[in-house]
Amino acid sequence: MTAETPAIPGLLLAGGLARRMGGGDKPMRQIGGRTILDRVIARLKPQCAGLVLNANGDATRFASFGLPVIADSIENFPGPLAGILAGLDWLAAHRPDVSWMLSAAADCPFLPRDLVARLHRARAQHGSQLAVAASGGQSHPVIGLWSVGLRDELRHALVVEDIRKIDRWTARYKLATVSWPTEPLDPFFNANTLDDIVEAERLATLDADGDASAARLS
Description:
alpha/beta, two-stranded antiparallel ribbon, 33% helix
């Protein structure tokens, strides 16, 4: 956080079931002796005014991380939009002082250290209601900046209109897209399969715990 960036809490989306890894929580897989979730927290904690974890099921499995754990506020609704709504609802109830929320996938171990600052700056410059990250010509809609004031409109889209795809909903609003380079690695690489875990081990040596990426993106 800086004088130019307001207090923005972060929501970590950990709702995936890791079916392609044989089940379990993807963020609890280890890379270089550290869980992916631990790496995500280390990246975002300095940037955010607190972190909240969105996960369904037994919340105690994440107790060691010391974060509030919130389930989807719409029952039996699969998908990240439900998690994002849960985060916006939680902030409205517990942090009425904030107007924006960062969302990020909890299985992305190499998130950029300037994620919040760049998303906020682009949103402010373009007068946008939302901002989303991109790399390599691909948008990453679960990694973005959300206005808390849009939560009731999001709830309507989910419950009444049955909208599940993030980009279908965000298309209704003015959206700022911020792109990051993919060298020496894609900061939005996410671990979906066991092969991805192997690749993440290799990338972690290139990343040097983020120092190389931070230097390149500064």
